[in-house]
Amino acid sequence: MRNTRRVVTGLGLASSMAALVLAGTAQAQEAPAPTEQAEAFSDGEIVVTAQKRAESLQKVPISIAAISGEQLEQRQIRAAEDLVSSVPGLQVNGALGEGLPIFSLRGISMLDFSLVQNGPIAVYYDEVYKGNFAIMGLGMFDLERVEVLKGPQGTLYGKNTTGGAVNLITRKPKFETGGQVSFGYGNHDKVTADGAAEVALSDTLGARIAYTFERGDGWIDNRYPGAPDANSTRQYGLRGSLRYNPSDVLDVTIRATTTLQNPQNYGILAIPVGNGIGGEILPAFGLDTSNREGLGRREIDTPHISRRRLRTYALAANADIKLSDSLTLTSITSWDKGSIYYSEDADGTDIFTSQATYYGKTRQITQDLRLTSDFGGPFNFIVGGYFSNENIRSYNDMSYFTDLDVNGDGNVNGQDCIDGGGFLACNVYNRFKQKKNSYALYSDASYELADRLTLRGGLRYTHDRGKLRDFVAQLRAPDRTPLINTVPGSATDLFATTSRDYSNDNVSGKIGIDFKPTDRVLLYASYSRGYRGAAFNAQALFSPVELTVTKPEKIQAAELGFKTELLDRMVRLNGAVYWYGYKDQQVFDIDPLTSVQRLLNLPKSRLFGAELDLQVRPTHNLTLSTGLAVVDTKVQKGMVQGVDVRGNKLVSAPSFTLTSSIDWSVPFGGWAADSHVDVAYASKQYYDILNRETTVEGDYAIVNGRVRFHPENDRYGVAFWMKNITNTYYRTNKIDASALGFIYTHVNAPRSYGVTFDAKF
Fold it and tell me: What is the Cα–Cα distance from 284 to 424, expressed in whole angstroms?
């Protein structure tokens, strides 16, 4: 009820502002002429490249949400997880903390939280696939736009995915000299600085450099004396771009990027269950458990907070070569290198129930080569080939009750680990190398059957190979001296290793038809198949049975949709309904009693959904937007932990999500005030496939706002902003660790606010 009231409050605020705006507009000016109304929308036209061609958003026969660079600034979207406030149906699981979002789109999500996996929602930076958390880094700066594509992707994109794609498109050099800067300050002593500058080195050669910087104190208070607060901010990103465009025949852009995130790591709020944190284990040894006495809902009490370090380097070259008036060859070449390291205290207290350290180092090389036609006739096509090579080194290090004197001899050592059954007073550790190669041939074609009727289709062949090498897992003493080889399970060689391999082939594709009864109405229907490659279980620690290799995920998707512009383009109304048949979803499963961790395939699920997006622009200065998404998910076949999960809902799949916003610009005395308010709502959702009540999260709503004052020439401005205005509290991830006496929990950020100054030159 608390969250429902906040939703009503937020929507009421938005509705009240809309009423005031409309009333004020009616008094302040006459109704615009139809031509002015049309210009109002044409000014805000978003051109997307979702189909690898520059097209108006309204002419693309797929479900896509596009957010321009200006809108990103208005909405204070500084991190990928902030996109949730603008894209209904998009959710972010916070299992890896801020800056490492695990996306869920239309109920399709990744249920493996290790650092080495590739998710079903692909992330692209300037068409370069970022397959691994260690190479994602900071991408949300100096952006031209963000595109969120919903549904399986394969006939047009470098990497085949089952759930969708998030495309971040940066600004290219434009052969002019200028730039912009911004500086901000907010609560938690947060300081931000962003900017970009470019110079025309000649009529055909341009350079651009962009940066972002952010630093702030942690927003989870740590009560432990002398220990730092958690969830701080300490990061920067730097990108240099060089563009060579000597003629219409050749256009080459080279980008070099480096980013660093080095904050105090996230804090875990353990929700006590049963006897409290420590479960039945600590009382058995005459020790006290903890129920977080005296701690608030964003407070911890632990000495174990350290920095999380994520370092990335990237180099990419995008080239368009016009072979003729009707054929263009596009090459996208990339090299990425990154590493990530962090430690966490799983219970957020000074009790040593569980601590973990994770490390991953990744190098990735990709090459995408495609030929695009632009014939004057009814037929056009795209054909291409894709290759990616990913090499990873990783280790996981986890400790359980490492201060517990199990045998009571006055010392805590390896004997306590052995006497504790290989769990109490133990450290478990694994390390390995992983290599993945992916090869693909893809095609997409369209044929105009009639003046307003187009048939579309495409095919993709994918060959994936994976190698896991030098895998070793050990049971170790509290001082990390190896005791037993658990994987592969050698009784004589503590450092014995094992390996795994897979090789998969897949043919997927898409067929669709779209019809334009008028110039402002598009109707479309499609059927497609998506694919996500096999995976190794990177968190095998206790037993050889954990070292599983999952089968690839597959999905069938049928969709009907429409896109319309009404009332002289004052109104845009888009919608879609869809059905997914989901096979072999990869599910990470933790047994709450033994902590055995396996990566499984969930044989069969289905999803039904519908979406509606409405945008109304009654005047050039006012835009009202609302988007809603409804989805019903159901497991049709599957066993997890020996439990039949038929009928359960999928993870991170709220049945109803809503986004709503108002943008209003008011001129006064040679100045203008640009205001923005948005509301995002999500209904109840589960964070594990067993749908346990311990991992459910109720409905919640987030309200954000910003107002910016600037002169008419817009050369500079000052903005006042606030995020999570109502200080809504909810959990972004939960894991049932009841054997340890708690529910492992990540929480959302509290209310934040600040001021930002910007200038153009």
Answer: 12
